[in-house]
Amino acid sequence: MVFEIIPAVDMRGGKCVQLVQGVPGSEIVSLDDPLAVALDWVSKGAKTLHLVDLDGAIEGIRKNAPIIEKIVRACREKGVSIQVGGGIRNYEDASSLLELGVARVILGTAALQNPELVKQLSGTFGSSRVNVALDAKNGKISIKGWTEECAHTPVEMGRKFEELGAGSLLFTNIDTEGLMQGVNPVPTKELVESVSIPVIASGGVSSLADIKSLKKTGAAGVVVGSALYMGRFTLEDAIEAALED
């Protein structure tokens, strides 16, 4: 299995942004045309894109849905897979995206508040199209755009959602997210070793060494945001680093 580099296209207020630890107003990147950004990553070799509606994640209202639809349609023509998260709160939200052609929907708050939704979607669309986001701060799961903490650990929830039919997990280490200070591979490795479904890592990648470190955990891929936008390395270099032993 090829360890995949997945560029993030996070949207807030119609713009492509990068926030520090998901805090509104902490933008370190703000670009006016998310579609152009997405297509640029595709032109540089991305096979999968990670789209997040931050307004949806934080406020529960998927304000960037029209832009996401444009990106999905444009990228589908190029054979690029799209995974989408942020504000997907119910079956209707998820099914509309899957029917649009999204490869995977990412369920965070909705899955934790209504685990049966994972079972329902995987039963209808297949496990491979259902991803559950496990975002952790200080070893505990956070929900609602990282504003509320739960009592459960990523390992506990990862095992539960695998049983319910999730085909993959997205693990974000909030402790390192957006800080550009490197990754802590230990929590990712713990989760990878606790489940049999693919785990995509996220949070804190700031160098090619971080990518290699996460690859060693056994993760299936990594979502990269700020480091790419800030020019720490190119997407081409990241893809090449991911192929190295």
Return residue spans where pLDDT drops below 50 for at least 5 consecutive residues.
Answer: none
Please give the count of helices: 11
Mass-distribution shape: globular
Q: What about the largest sheet?
A: 8 strands, parallel, barrel
Number of strands: 12
- Describe the strand arrangement of the main beta sheet, using strand numbers: 1-4-5-6-7-10-11-12
Return the string of H and E elements. Answer: EEEHEHHEHEHHEEEHEHEHEHH
Terminus-to-terminus distance: 13 Å
| Radius of gyration, in angstroms, nearest whole number | 16 Å
Strand percentage lies at 15-25%
Give the overall pLDDT as a whole number: 92
Q: Keyphrases for this structure?
A:
single chain; 245 residues; alpha/beta; 11 helices
Describe it for me?
The chain has 245 residues and is of the alpha/beta class. It contains 11 helices and 12 strands. It has helices at 34-43, 54-59, 65-76, 91-100, 109-113, 116-125, 154-164, 185-192, 208-215, 226-229, 235-243, and strands at 4-12, 15-18, 29-31, 48-53, 81-85, 104-107, 130-137, 140-143, 148-149, 168-173, 199-202, 221-224. It has an 8-stranded parallel β-barrel with strand order 1-4-5-6-7-10-11-12, surrounded by 8 helices. A hairpin with a 2-residue loop joins strand 7 and strand 8 (140-143). Helix 9 packs parallel to helix 11 (235-243). It is globular and about 40 Å long. It starts with a strand and ends with a helix. The mean pLDDT is 92.
